[in-house]
Amino acid sequence: MEAYIVFNNQSAAPEFVSGWGLSVFFRSKRLLFDTGSETNALLHNFSLFNITPSEIHSIFLSHFHWDHAGGLLGLLPHLSSPKIFLHRGFSSGFIAEIRRLGGEVVLFNEPSKIGPGVYTTGPLESSSPEAALIFDIQGKLALFTGCAHPGILNLVHKTKELWGKVPLLVGGGFHLLQMSRKKIFFIAQELHRLGVRLVAPSHCTGQKALEVFADIFRNGFVAMGAGKILFLEKLMRKF
Q1: Residue 237 counted as domain residue
Q2: Chain centroid to CA 180: how far?
Q3: Structure letter (DSSP) for residue 71
Q4: Distances 166 to 36, 48, 62, 191, 223 between C-alpha atoms, Å
Q5: How does pLDDT run across 191-225, given as a tens digit for each residue?
Q6: pLDDT band at 238, cuts 50/70/90?
Q7: 239 in any annotated domain
Q8: CA–CA distance from 238 to each of 169, 195, 216, 220 (Å)?
Q9: Phi, psi angles (nearest 5°) of residue 232
């Protein structure tokens, strides 16, 4: 299974447009996770990946912040009746606009199955309710977060509570930008102690935290950036 990093704070290749936010396309699932902050960058980066908007059958939004949901409304006219997975953290006005633009809204407020081998934690409470995606890849779990506002450790513990095991891979925004190095070090060590072996932090994680995670996880640290493709099965096969 391949994860295409369509939108991110940094670019893995100069031709890809970067910006504040996150969007990842899971091609074999035809599922887009978050939509970054604006549509034009998404469409530009899609074209560089040779991804056509018609390939997107469903979109999952982690939480109602502009840097994760901002690209959606402009993207909808390019799609054909996509399913949009949302939870209680989204406004009724936003939901109405999605429906007006042809999106089929699927509301969830509990841990749910999104599709074959794809699940969500359901929304966890924080400054903005946020849900994460979980992929079952040949019996191993991969957790993808938008910003991890509820706390990256809390999301990993929630995954263990629901599935009885810790995700082998954790990727996405870790929300550690303003955190002290000491606390970041504790979080990284704790994730490793719990059994996480691969991390692909990006977006709101922060350079300081990236350095700490790279030092602790070493070969299990995966650099991110718009234009990067993560071959998840290949990565997880090593552990």
Answers
A1: no
A2: 24
A3: T
A4: 27, 34, 20, 9, 21
A5: 999 999 999 999 999 999 999 999 999 999 999 99
A6: confident
A7: no
A8: 11, 14, 17, 9
A9: -65, -45
Determine contact, residues 83/57, Cβ cutoff 8 Å. yes
Instruction: Round to whole Å and give the CA distance between 17 and 209.
Output: 23
Domain that holds residue 196: 2-232
Q: How many CB atoms lie within 10 A of CB 140?
A: 18
pLDDT tens-place string over residues 139-179: 999 999 999 999 999 999 999 999 999 999 999 999 999 99
Token code pair at residue 182: 């000491």
Work out how many domains the chain is built from and give that number: 1
Distance CA(96)–CA(15), nearest Å, equals 35
Look at residue 97 and give its three-state secondary structure.
helix
The per-residue b/e assignment along 157-178, b for 16 or more CB within 10 angstroms, e otherwise, is ebbeeebeebbbbbbbbbbbee
Alpha-carbon gap, residue 151 to 142, rounded angstroms: 17
We report the CATH number of the domain holding residue 55 as 3.60.15.10
CB-side exposure of 179: number of CA atoms within 13 Å?
23
- Residue 141, class by beta-carbon neighbours within 10 Å (0-12 exposed, 13-18 middle, 19+ buried)? buried
Tell me how crowded residue 127 is: count the other CB atoms within 10 A of its CB.
Answer: 11
Would you say 7 and 42 are in contact if contact means Cβ atoms under 8 Å apart? yes
- pLDDT for the residue 127: 83
102 close to 84: Cβ distance less than 8 angstroms: no
Inside any domain, residue 201: yes
The predicted pLDDT at position 114 comes to 95
Which residue type is seen at 65?
Answer: H
